[in-house]
Input
Amino acid sequence: MVKRILYSLLAISTVLSSCKKDGTATVAERPVVISYLLMGHPVKVNLYEQKAFSDTAAYGARIGGLQLVLSDGTQTVQLAETTTGIYTYADSTFLQAGKTYTLQFAYKNSVITASSLMPVYTTNYTASTTKFAIRVGVTPLESDSTAVRFSWNNPDSLYHVLVFKYDEANTYANGNGNLPSNFTVNAKKVDSYDVSYRPFRYAGEYSAILYTVNKEYSDILTTNTNTNSQQLNNPPGNITNGYGIFTAMQADTIRMSLTN
Output
């Protein structure tokens, strides 16, 4: 399950690691932090150097050899560098709903910090249906009609994101070309969301993953949606003296089966 959940975050990770180098040497030496804290899973923090937008590599060079600590306000633990630039803490019970987690480390004469609140688990996540036929080659009106409504409890107006992951090994098995098989919906603060037939291009098994997220994550999604080649500013983040994202989230999954 953890690989399936983390897969859906890769697109945002790539954007965040591609921070534009700023004009001053001090700012240009700031690290890029990418970390998603998931309840029930070990802590993992990725550290990169900045890379220019013109750089063809997916990421900047990894940053190794640092001492990272993580605090929940009561207990502080040190992360282990398991691979160059990848820092982990294996005890998944350290992450608890309602606690604020603060990451801290020193890098090039600066102290880098970031904090995020682990949101409460969203309950009563349901779908109006988990089985339906895809609609390819139909009228726009039919394609844009509601295929499935997802609902969940959200009395505190927390932020939510829906991620749809196509689970078949052969992604383009249904002859629909190279159209996207996975997609993301920023549901923001609602407690239900109608998804049309249009984005479901392939028959087979899907995972509909509901993430309960914080504002910093929702802001990243909104910025990615509005970004174009004329906007080369660094994306928003919550890292003091650095760039990237350090955020906590909960996840729940509904399996779906689509037919031709």
